[in-house]
Specification:
The protein has 120 residues and is mainly β. It is 8% helix and 36% strand. It is globular. 19% of the residues are buried.
């Protein structure tokens, strides 16, 4: 039996591994919003927002002053991928005016690796 060693064997092994799913980002308590803000833009990452809520939701970035900056609405069952930075918190609110639009449903803090933010 011949055993392959070296870099080429490692490349073959890595190519055969199945793709890993992005990890879920834990939703943070909305009470943290008042004390949250973006700190820097040093480390880029991605967040995929997934709306499993029964109504449309609104996605905001918290800027360097801690203020909401609107990015987009997501309809029920839809998702979208957002480039961001590790120290940039995000707030997801309801968007229906009859239910008091703007109420926080969840907050998410991006991670060093791309993650999924599920809104339920």
């Amino acid at each position: 039996m011949t055993m392959r060693t070296g870099l080429a064997a490692g490349i073959v092994l890595l190519a055969a591994l199945p793709a890993m799913a992005e990890p879920a980002l834990p939703p943070l308590d909305c009470g943290r919003e008042a004390a949250s803000r973006s700190l820097n833009s040093n480390r880029s990452t991605f967040v995929t927002f997934v709306n499993r809520h029964d109504e449309s939701v609104r996605v905001y970035w918290l800027n360097f002053d801690g203020r909401r900056v609107y990015y987009r609405d997501i309809e029920p069952g839809e998702s979208y991928r957002q480039q961001t930075f590790v120290t940039h918190p995000w707030v997801v609110t309801n968007s229906e005016t009859e239910h008091g639009a703007g109420q926080c449903l969840a907050m998410f803090q991006p991670a060093a690796v791309a993650g999924i933010a599920v809104i339920e």
